[in-house]
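Following up on my earlier thread - several people asked me to post the actual chain instead of describing it. Fair enough. Here it is, all 231 residues.
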Amino acid sequence: MIETPSPAFRDVDTWVFDLDNTLYPARHDLWGQIDARMRDYIAGLLGLTLDDAFKLQKDYYRRYGTSLRGLMIEHGIEPDAFLDHVHDVDLSRLDPSPRLAAAIEALPGKKLVYTNGSERHARNVLSKLGMDQHFAAVHDIVAAEFHPKPTPDAYGRFLDAYGVDPSRAAMFEDLARNLEVPHRLGMVTILVVPPGERLEAREAWEFEGREDAYVDFVTEDLAGFLEQVGS
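Reply from S.P.:
Thanks for posting it. Predicted structure:
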């Protein structure tokens, strides 16, 4: 595990952050709420048991990048109602993160959030964390025209939308597979593996790639890592 930043960040002027389980610790289990609401929505939509709905949800998530993408392709659903339902979650367990907010603010250049979720959800989370003013934009699944990470087309749309030069950008993610294409494009890649991660709450395939060469850095302390970069 590499935890010490290197001169690789010297020319970085665009900092790209995933949202869920990246900008806040996985121990808050906000994703667990979203996961359950997706399962319930799919069960009601397709008339499935909760167990069958959960299996289908995870199958689509792995194959299509998001469960929503799978539902759109396989069942032709409209995305707005799905996004409104799954992101109607309780944020009361999230606390402001002034140290991380300060570390992000100190980074030179532009800061962006790139999420497979909705902008409304991202804005709500960022506001609760006390760091919404530090990001120039949120690139969500709607802005991506429902092409999710980790598809190459999704990253192309993102880079074009904000005029990002990948050779001068860094990307922070909690899923290693979402870093493979950015690394190939020339971005510095950082895998965030927060303490308190509930291994039993994730699928085994979500851990694949953590030791692969397309992960440049790994950190369990995002704020500390960014402080070293900023210094």
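The mean pLDDT is 90. That should answer part of your original question.
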